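Input/output pair, single chain:
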Amino acid sequence: MGGPSFENLDLACAKAGKGIVDKLSEDSKAGPKLFKEIENLIRDAISVLEEQGVYALFLFLKTKTQSKKPGDLVSRELHIFLKNVPQKDPLLCDDNDLFDSLQKLAEDLDKLLLASNLLRQTLIYAFYHARLRTKEVASS
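Output:
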C-alpha cells in the first residue's frame, strides 16, 4: 500500500562516515599511523562540533590542512552530505560557498540542530571505521 516512506538518516550517516575514511585512506601505503591521525582529527572535530557548533566545525576542518589536506577532504565530504540529506529537503542549498550556506542554515533552528546531530553521528561512524582500520592494519 502507499504508506509513508521514511529515509533512514542513521544509515546515511554510516555510509558517509565510512566514505570519509575510505577516501582518506586511498593511499596504498596507508598504515596504522595514518589511521591514528585520522582518528585524532575526527575526535577533535567531534569535540569542536559539540562545544562550538556546526560553523566552528567547518572552520576547524579548514585549519587542518596538511600535505594531503585531510581537513579539507572531511569538510568537503560533510558539505556534500548536508547538501544531499534528507533527500526530499536537503539541509544545505546548492550554493557552492559553504559558509554562506551555513549562515542560511543557521536561520532555521530545527534544521541547524538536525544538521548538528547528523554531523555528529557521521563523525562518530567515521571515527570507529578509522579505529577498525588501525587495528586491521596493525594486525596484518
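Residues 3 and 130 are 38 Å apart (CA to CA). The chain has a mean pLDDT of 89.
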